[in-house]
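For the sake of clarity, the format in which proteins appear in this thesis is described at this point. The record quoted next illustrates the convention:

___
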Amino acid sequence: MDTMAPQSRLRRALHLLKSIRRPSPTVTIELDKNTYGPENTFTTFDRIQGTVIITVDSETPLENISITFEGIAKVSIGRETCTLSNTEATQTFLQLKQPVTQGIDSVPKILQPGCPYRLPFTFVVPQYLPCQSCNHNISCSDLKQAHLQLPPTFDDPKMGYGKRPTLDYASSGKCHISYRVRVVLSRGSIPGIRKSRRLIDCAKSVLVLPTSAHTSPSVLPMLGSDTYTRTEQNLSQGFAQPGLGELITETSQIPPISVQYPFDNDSVHTALRLNLRFNPLIDAAPPQLKKASAKLQVSTFYSPVPWEDYPSWNDRELANGWDRGAFTDTFPIMEFSMGPFQWVKHQDMGDEQRNQGLNGQSMSDTLCNGSRSYYTASIVLPIVLPPRMTPIPTFHSCLISRTYSINLHLSFHTPRTTLQTASTTIKIPLMVQYASNNQHTSLGYEESDASDSIVMDVLPPPEYTATA
């Protein structure tokens, strides 16, 4: 018995050495050409089809073949401590499996050289994620619905800037969302070693830009705690002079910007309505809008701990930078001088109407001072993004969010006063979404055939993993 044990250990060692020196299989992932969009770029309900080609140089035992389509979010936050440690988190929020059978009629248990094995696969880009993807505490049901929307590819380092169909460069390199077709080959356990050995693990990245079927304010909040669409300011004639009155500036909700996919060369644009009201304290003419300028603010929020509420620049945890991170950039999109516009004078305002501002907002009674007149005006301002700027959609996921706002700066001219100009700034939330082009015949769930339920198995994604 004593002499057999060393010989047994020697055989296992030789078997292990031989298996280590054996060449690994070669795996190639080929994607079929996308008919409608750019290469390797897909949107909601698109079929991601292709073939996995496996070749070996020698007989190779094979226990399992896994072909999956995965969506992964990664976040990294550097902590300013003496050790300069990082907090990282990875979440596999989507995992679709292509069934692969092994046996005599398909892939054998032992792969033979000189015979490439071709395994076709088909995945359909879903509109929503499995409910298990968002299993953390949240503050409201709307956020749960937002987290279950399929997020777009975001700053995937494996895709490279040259292959991106969007020109969105507002990035810090601290957070990524990537999609990939992944192939894993594993062989049976070696005698004396219980754990099976992974032969190869390879993946091919793709761009996913989901479209929105409809716009619902309940899915993405249009007004956050760090945005404001109304300002009130008292206009004065100068130092120690009586006030002229109150100028109320308010904007209506901006319609979402819909970017057509596949992308065209047209400019992306929308418009906002600017409502003005002037409540004079004395017999003074209303001010005139002198200049209007707007900037697009792009904000990205990320955290290794799932967000329990919609992110905001007013978040206290964001200020300390411990478990929250954010970065922003601004792009000028509009600036022009305004000509004279017509104010409409209203008189004989009743007590009930006097206490109503724009759109039903309250207003101070002290401004009237016995006056029963006020002025209103309305202006429509175009919002046009640069022709070559195609931002990614607004989204909120468990770890990463992208939001937009229009920072509108207005300057007014107050005639016949020592204070010649007055200015105000309004920060208006904006939602960007992708809409399918009419020429793009997407595959909807209602139109999918019965084979789709066989082609893909939806796996419950694992919980996110965090490392400190």
